[in-house]
Automatic annotation (TrEMBL):
CC terms in the record's Gene Ontology section: plasma membrane-derived thylakoid membrane; proton-transporting ATP synthase complex
Keywords in alphabetical order: ATP synthesis, CF(1), Hydrogen ion transport, Ion transport, Membrane, Thylakoid, Transport
Record organism: Waterburya agarophytonicola KI4
Database matches in PROSITE patterns: ATPASE_DELTA (PS00389)
Name recorded for this polypeptide: ATP synthase subunit delta
Length: 183
C-alpha cells in the first residue's frame, strides 16, 4: 500500500506538469489517447512492462523502445516527456503518471470512469446501454468504460463508478438470497 502511495505522490506532479503543457497547446485529448494506448500495452504485455520498468536496463535502450512503441506520429512534447522520465529515472513510475494524467483528463472533460465486470463479453448495444445508465446515475457528460470478464458472476454485471458499486450479477443476487435465508 505504501508503495502505491509513494508512486502516487511522485507521479502526480509529473502528470500535472504534462496536463499543464497539454492545456497550453490544446493537446489534452491527444495525450490522453496516447496514454490510454500505453496503459493498455503495459497491461497486456508483461514483457514490455518488465523491460521499461526494470532499473537495470540502460536508459538509451528504454528510450529506443519507447520511441518505437509510440511511433513516428507521436507528439514531440510527449516523446520528450517520456525521455525526461527515463533520464530522471522516473520511468518506474510510468503507470502511476499515466493513471494520474487520465484522472486529470476525466475531471477536465467531466467524464467518469465506470469499471464494469460482466460474466461474458459485452456487445456494443450493451456497452451503449451501460454508458447511458451511468450518465444518468452520475450526471457526467461522458463515461469511459473499462470492462473485464469474470465468468464466476454467472450472469449480469457489477458496475463501479467512483466509490459507488452496483451489483446486478446473478452471483450477487444469490449471495443476497442466501444472507436473507440465514437470518
Amino acid at each position: 500500500m505504501s508503495g502505491t502511495l509513494v508512486s502516487s505522490q511522485i507521479g502526480e506532479p509529473y502528470a500535472q506538469a504534462l496536463m499543464s503543457l497539454a492545456q497550453q497547446n490544446d493537446l489534452t485529448n491527444q495525450f490522453g489517447d496516447a496514454f490510454r494506448s500505453l496503459s493498455s500495452l503495459l497491461t497486456e504485455s508483461q514483457e514490455f512492462k518488465d523491460f521499461v520498468l526494470n532499473p537495470v536496463i540502460k536508459g538509451e535502450d528504454k528510450k529506443a523502445v519507447l520511441k518505437q512503441v509510440m511511433g513516428n506520429d507521436a507528439n514531440p512534447y510527449l516523446i520528450n516527456f517520456m525521455m525526461l522520465l527515463v533520464d530522471k529515472r522516473r520511468i518506474v513510475f510510468l503507470e502511476s503518471i499515466v493513471e494520474q494524467y487520465l484522472n486529470l483528463l476525466r475531471k477536465l472533460n467531466k467524464t467518469v470512469l465506470a469499471e464494469v465486470t460482466s460474466a461474458t463479453e459485452l456487445n456494443e448495444e450493451q456497452r451503449n446501454g451501460l454508458v447511458e445508465k451511468v450518465k444518468g446515475i452520475s450526471n457526467a457528460r461522458d463515461v469511459e468504460l473499462r470492462s473485464t470478464v469474470d465468468p464466476s458472476l454467472i450472469g449480469g454485471v457489477i458496475i463501479k463508478v467512483g466509490s459507488k458499486v452496483i451489483d446486478a450479477s446473478l452471483r450477487g443476487q444469490l449471495r443476497r438470497i442466501s444472507i436473507s435465508l440465514n437470518q
